[in-house]
């Protein structure tokens, strides 16, 4: 599972890439030029290529533009991994709580 999640977390660790993914999630598919409002088009293209490599976005060619959309499968897999870790920690904390309460009796 970490092999799937690690590239996603790495890609989302950059502020610009995270903004791009959030924007695509909120607004739907966008062109490269529409996603490059706060950064250069060349920088946007590099960020999008890395996001695509991580499985977070995909593109399709429409005329002279590339239209980008979110790949929810990668986001879901990364979220599932974090949820599994959270459940493990919850179980450990609950076991510790039970142990402390037992020792107090």
UniProtKB/TrEMBL annotation:
InterPro entries: ArsR-like_HTH, HTH_ArsR_DNA-bd_dom, WH-like_DNA-bd_sf, WH_DNA-bd_sf
PROSITE patterns noted in UniProt: HTH_ARSR_2
Lineage: superkingdom: Bacteria
CDD domains in UniProt: HTH_ARSR
Signal sequence, start to end: none
GO molecular function, one term: DNA-binding transcription factor activity
Pfam families in the record: HTH_20 (PF12840)
NCBIfam families: HTH_metalloreg
UniProt-recorded name of the protein: Transcriptional regulator
């Amino acid at each position: 599972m970490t092999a799937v999640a690690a590239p996603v977390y790495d890609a989302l660790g950059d502020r610009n890439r995270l903004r791009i993914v959030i924007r695509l999630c909120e607004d739907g598919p966008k062109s490269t030029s529409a996603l490059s409002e706060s950064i250069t088009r060349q920088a946007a293209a590099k960020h999008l290529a890395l996001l695509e490599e991580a499985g977070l976005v995909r593109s399709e060619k429409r005329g002279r533009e590339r239209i980008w959309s979110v790949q929810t499968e990668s986001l879901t897999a990364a979220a599932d991994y974090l949820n599994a870790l959270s459940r493990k920690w919850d179980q450990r904390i609950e076991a510790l709580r039970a142990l402390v309460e037992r020792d107090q009796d």
